[in-house]
Amino acid sequence: MRAAREIITEPIITTSFSVSRFDEFIVETAFSNRLNYHRILMIKSGSGILTIDEKSFEVKSHAVFLMSKGQVYEFEKPSIISGYVISFGDCFWEKTPKSASNCKAVLFNNTTANQILTLNNSEMSELLFLCNILSNEFLKPKYINQMDVLASYLKIVMIKLANVRITEETLFDSQDYLMYRKFMEILSKEYRNNRSVNSYAEMLNITARKLSTTCKRCSGISAKEIINGQIVAEAKRLLQFSSTTVKEIAYELNFNTPEQFSHFFKKNTKKSPADYRNQFITIST
Question: What number of other Cβ atoms are within 10 A of residue 252's Cβ?
Fold first, then answer.
């Protein structure tokens, strides 16, 4: 019997925010988990392998993994980790001051996802200190405006991480890069329903040519390639981690026909959806 790999969907967090500390946590059972929230995984020390979607990363000390809502991750066993994990939803992020919005755009978007930051000793010490404060505040008995306080601490953590992320990014303060980040933010919400460069350009009040040029400068690939990459990444997750049929996936991603989806997928991956899924199908005895 052949069965497609299934995933565990992350449970709902009532406040759309959580932070927890783990000390020498040992991963004894491998499982795949689809995120309902953005996640910051700060590794104080550890070893093992973390797979995010299809990319595998070595777990090591002073590493920070940034995972976006919708991604699928899995620790390979054995993995031993110490550090902090912060999860937050878009509605919780709205509590942070607008001045911090650029940090989220820099750190979290599905198209250029699977980001890992490597911190130096000073950066790691500072962020562990901040995470400890954040964790202690989160564990306090509930009080009025507690979520606002937590959002403020999260803002500080995000600013510090964004500063690490953009140390070598000379375009960060430029209008082009601000426009690029805004495009990525809109795309993360609209990609299932909209694949048109012209439509995104209209939302940003610029021309399609300007959008493509800006994307090329900031990411090395065109706007169309970025849009297609987002759709392909989601299609791969659905094919690999769900039993949803190819036909259902086609309509879920807003293709007119399954044939149109199959043609799109093969053009971008060199494999048909069925062939791609078959790579992950196991034979049960």
Answer: 15
